[in-house]
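Two records follow; treat each independently.
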Amino acid sequence: MTIAINRERLAATFTELCEISSPSRKEGAIAACLKEKFAGLGADSISEDGSATKTGSESGNLIVRFNGNQPEQEGLFLSCHMDTVEPANGVEVLRTGDIFTSKGETVLGGDDKSGIAAILELLALLKENKSPHPMIEVVVTTCEEIGLLGAKNLDYKQLQTNYGYALDSSGIDHVIVGAPAANKISIEIKGLAAHAGLCPEAGINALALTVAALSELRLGRLDDESTRNIGIIQGGVATNIVPEKIVLKGEVRSHSIEKLDLYTKEILNAFETTVAKWQGNPAVGDKRPSITFDIVGDYPALSIADDTPVIKRIQKASKLAGKTLKYIVAGGGSDANIFCSYDLPTAIIATGMAKVHTVDEQLDLNDIVNLTELLHALATTPS
């Protein structure tokens, strides 16, 4: 069961969306465009929540409802984010055959406007063909790329459907059913500044302490379920000054909450032990190094079983649409992690985006067509 997709309309929609600059917190223009498009497609309600006061965005999240004409069937929601990473100002889309790229000075914006374009084409098809379908809610969030802030501050009380699909993954023909939880970690080591040439012994080298602590830690992939990384190290003011302060920022991810806690504590223990072992000298006096930590739970784990309605529905739809999907466990976090934590099971569907977060980003029109066919099957196949 497939439907003829209006390829050129879909291509035009995708191009239009990409060329509206929408870096995180500057989503005002794209939100206004989407409100207009959803209204033109006959939305029964279009709501912008109050999350902007918490995220700092120009716009709140959009929650759009199409009531449908099958109230006896269980509805679903489809979700995307409207923000992109930088560089995102002045995007110019180049199309070569069926391949979309940017002019090369910005990202393309397929992450996540490929998903939005597919949703808009789906809604257009449902309207044109007067297709029977249950309630469909569309959730378009802000500030996903800077910490899932829109999803974290979404007004969930407005949602009437119980599960859905986030269109936000590279590749095609796969569904993500598992993703890790993550902790963000910030560490500050405070030493004592001194002239590095005249009296280095009067200083406490915060960088040396940092190196000693990091040498006790494994970074990268820790096991099949977990990773750990220190991504930012900042400190020092001059080559002739013993560095007084070093700030590190990193993360731990794991599909296991127990391991997430264990690997996070290992970082703390390594730095605390290093500072505790430090031995001074008369030039330093009674001064000692100090350390402070800040640990923030960034997002919870996502894990969806095969026998849940959200998975059964897409399995049925894909079979009727003649598509073979792979169900995988991934290593990244997304809005779906947050939705799941609110008891809204959310599987992640790949949209075809490739080389995301780079100026070499690209997208194949055939992949968005394929995605739209799957969405049509999801919307029209009885639950």
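The next record belongs to a different protein.
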Amino acid sequence: MKTTPPSKPHRRTGRFLTSIQMLTAGVLIAGFSAAPARAQDGWVSLFNGKNLDGWAEHSGKAKYTVEDGVLTGEAVAGTGNSFLCTKQRYGNFELELEYKCDPLLNSGVMFRSEVYPGSTTTVIGGKTYKFPPDRIHGYQCEIDMDAARGRMWTAGIYDEARRGWLLPPDGEKGPQGMAFSEQGRTVSKNGKWNQLRIVADGASIKTWLNGVARSEITDTVTPDGVIGLQVHGIGNDAKKAGLKVSFRNIRIHELPPTPAAAPNTLTEQEKADGWKLLWDGKTTTGWRSPKSENFPAKSWHMADGVLTVDSGLSDATAESSAGGDIISEDVYSNFELTADFKTSYGCNSGIKIFVQPNISPIDKVTGQPTGKGSAIGMEFQILDDQHHPDAKLGRNGDRTIGSLYDLIPAAKDKKVMPIGDWSHARIVSQGQHVEFWLNGKMTLECERDSAAFRDAVEKSKFKNIPDFGEWANGHVLLQEHGSPVSFQNVKLRELPAN
């Protein structure tokens, strides 16, 4: 079972869950309001009732199976907390599901949660948290049905592997915890199907159990992330091996995104987590041409917090032939990079990592070194798939938006925004592992030193470049490809090596 970190007692006002107001661990717990109106449409099933498509296992080794439209997690001795997680990230949403849990087995529903292939460190409220590889961490809607223990905290909110209990905050014997458990005892249905509802909208997080309001907090530590179904670790207790928690009717309705903060700025939490702006929103500071120490004299302009590469050629087919690409002055190895970008009709551009400006560009037809073209690196492709010819070239769509250009195609179910709308790119590089994300959904992942990656290089136009993509570090690049594309909110934080 989860343990409760020590916390100071808090003064209660009014009735529990109707007029509590307190401040604890940076979390404001406010009076509960009426449930928001349910959406009439826009709901999407996260579980197809047949298999685990769209889900991935992380952290532990619990068994997850599907039968008759029910997804079941089974406890396994000798492993830690296990999580079956969506491959897509979600920020603002309504989430509903039904569960049935053995009272001796602890469980929960993760949301806005993070997981990285390598060791990761973050800072929250001045405290440093370290996570081993593949360890899920983030918000969890608790599932706790152990009436015999005297604690019924289902639909409480726990910060998995980080701050501990957010609601209730004062432990099992505190007045908040006891009152919360008493309410849970009256609304829980032991041995039967129960319904959970979670609404995350900006900083507001609310939960319901079987239609009864349970938790409401305001917290801004993690604005988006994956959703996960937990099977809590049982240690080496063989008697608990085989205990099960089951889920069904898992569906989500995404809500409008939270109004963005001023572009090209960092929140206090981002600063604490080690983020920095790669582009300051105003100047050329930190950027230069791959061919010189200077910023290009043409093709790029900055206005109203937006960095735009202009249309340099009418056919938009030549790489870096007008003002040219721009690269970061610094080089990076282990990092998380995010950027917003806006496409135009028929456009072609990209975000490259591990860029090596000392290697000659490659002719896209012959594959031979050439004096003209884009600097060499691993490219997150930015393209108008509908109107640019590159989308039909390459192999299996590996030149479409969100792909690792000319190497690995983006997932077919990628989320593409309309032309003229802002899109969000996220690139994670840690050790040899690389992930590309487009608008909150992973488009691909790879290991840079794997046989599969090297085989893809051998079939690409980069086959004659020794050790392509396996360099220890490199620059970040924004590509000029003769067509208008805009960027803002270009941010990066360095990660520890695996």
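Discussion point: Helices lie at 175-187, 268-272, 451-458. How would you locate this feature using only the token line?
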